[in-house]
Amino acid sequence: MKVSDETMLRYVILTHTWPTFHWDFMLEWEGKLLSWRILEEPTLDTPLTVQRTPDHRIEYLDITGPVSGGRGEVQQWDHGRLSIQSLKEDEVCGLLESFKDTDNVSFTIKNDILKFSKESV
Description:
This is ATP-dependent DNA ligase. Residues 16-90 form the DNA ligase D 3'-phosphoesterase domain. GO terms for molecular function: ligase activity. There is one protein chain. With 121 residues, this protein is mainly beta. Helices cover 0% and strands 61% of the residues. The chain has an 8-stranded antiparallel β-barrel with strand order 1-2-3-4-9-8-7-6. A hairpin with a 2-residue loop joins strand 8 and strand 9 (113-118). The chain starts with 8 loop residues before the first strand and ends with a strand.
């Protein structure tokens, strides 16, 4: 399954230096960014522990540099288009058009575990 132009939502993964170094995984949804903190570097086919964080403003899709209030710095690690296939209180599933130069990568977040997998086409 490919991401279609009709479902052109965006995602971003930021590196963030505060309070300790981590990655922020953010998904565009209904005018905001659903957000999770990842403590280890995102990779394919590796279960990653995540922590749900408050939703962020949509502007974080394009932010880089210092964060206001002395909350460290962020840099884009990856970004692109996505399709959300399922959104429940305890589970989110979707498809990233690309993930670090790999096309069609699915993701699932369930029970505070995130997993990226190569989508079979």
